[in-house]
Amino acid sequence: MSVEVERKFVCNADTPQTLEEIGAVCIGQRQFHDQYFDTPDFDLTLQDMWLRRRKGCWELKCPMTAAGKTKETHGEESKEAALCTRYKEITDLTEIQMRVTEVLKDICGHVEVAYQSAEQRTEDGPEKDKKVSPQDEDLWQTKMNLGCFAEYTTVRRSFVLEKEGVQIDLDHADFDYHVGEIEVLLPQGGDVQSALEKIERTARKLGLAGQQRVEGKMHVYLKKNHPEHYANLLRAHVL
Ligand code: V4E
C-alpha cells in the first residue's frame, strides 16, 4: 500500500516548456482507459472510496485517516496543504476486496463475504493469491453489486523533478479536459509533511502560488454524466 499526495493545477500549451525550464525531465507519454465501479446507490464513492480498473489491474483509492493529515501549530490545515489530496492506494486485489466488503457490510449489512480469508489463502498456497481469473472477478462484482459508472481514456505526459522526488503529470481526458497533477508517492507511514513541502516548492517554481483548488477529471465527468450524484458528493463534502 502506498500514499499519494497530490495537487492538481490548470495547465496549458506552455506548461511542458515551463517544466523543462525548471529542470523537470519528460519521462514519456502513455494512454490508459479507466473504469470506475460502485453500487447502484454509490455506496463507495459517497464514502470517498474510488474503485477502478486500469490496464486490467484493480486499484482502490481511499482517504487517509485524520492522523495522516498534517496541521499547522494552531490546528488549522495550511492553505497550501488544503490544495493537496492524500489518498491511500491499494493495488492488492484481496486487500481491495476486504476493504470494499467492510464498507458495504457497514452500509448494507448483508453483503456476502466475497474474498478468501487469510487462513484460506495460506491453505491454498501463495500461487493462488497472485492469480485472479476473470470469472472470479465477475463473481466478486456480482456479489458486491458493483457496476461501472464512469469510464474515460487519458493521454498522460509525465515529467520528474528528480532532486525533489516529485512527478508532474499532464493529462488530457477524452471528454476534452486538461489537468496537471504534481504528486509524491510515499510508502505507508511516509513523511506527508515533507511531501506537501515538495509539492508547494514545485508549485511555486511553476508560478502556481495562490491558486484555487482545481477540479479533477472525475469532477468534470460526473458533472456532465451523473449530475445528481455529483451534487450528492458535493453535499457529502467528498468532492
Ligand atoms: C481520489 C479521487 C478519484 C479517483 C481518481 O483520482 P485522480 O488522482 O483524480 O485520478 P488520476 O486519473 O489522476 O489517477 P492517478 O493516475 O493519479 O492515480 S475521483 C475523486 N477523487 C477525490 C478527489 C478530490 N476530492 N479532490 C480532488 C482535487 N481530486 C480528487
How would you sum up this structure in a few lines?
This protein is an alpha+beta fold. Helices cover 34% and strands 31% of the residues.
Structural write-up:
By secondary structure, this protein is an alpha+beta fold. It has one domain: Hypothetical Protein Pfu-838710-001, CATH 2.40.320. The protein is built from nine helices and eight strands. It has an eight-stranded antiparallel β-barrel, surrounded by four helices. A hairpin with a 4-residue loop joins β6 and β7. α8 crosses α9. The longest helix is centred in the middle third of the chain and has 16 residues. The radius of gyration is 19 Å and the shape is globular. 23% of the residues are buried. The site of Thiamine Triphosphate has 13 residues, from β1, β5 and α8. Thiamine Triphosphate binds next to β1, β5 and α8.
Task: List descriptors.
alpha+beta; 239 residues; Hypothetical Protein Pfu-838710-001; 8-stranded antiparallel beta barrel
Average of pLDDT:
86
Number of strands: 8
The unreliable regions are 126-130
Largest sheet: 8 strands, antiparallel, barrel
> Count the helices. How many?
9
Layout of helices and strands:
Elements: E1 2-9, H1 15-21, E2 25-38, E3 50-54, E4 57-63, H2 79-82, E5 84-90, H3 93-108, H4 118-124, H5 126-130, H6 134-144, E6 147-161, E7 166-173, E8 177-187, H7 192-205, H8 217-225, H9 227-235
Antiparallel strand pairs: 1-5, 1-8, 2-3, 2-6, 3-4, 4-5, 6-7, 7-8
Helix pairs in contact: 8-9
The structure holds Thiamine Triphosphate (V4E).
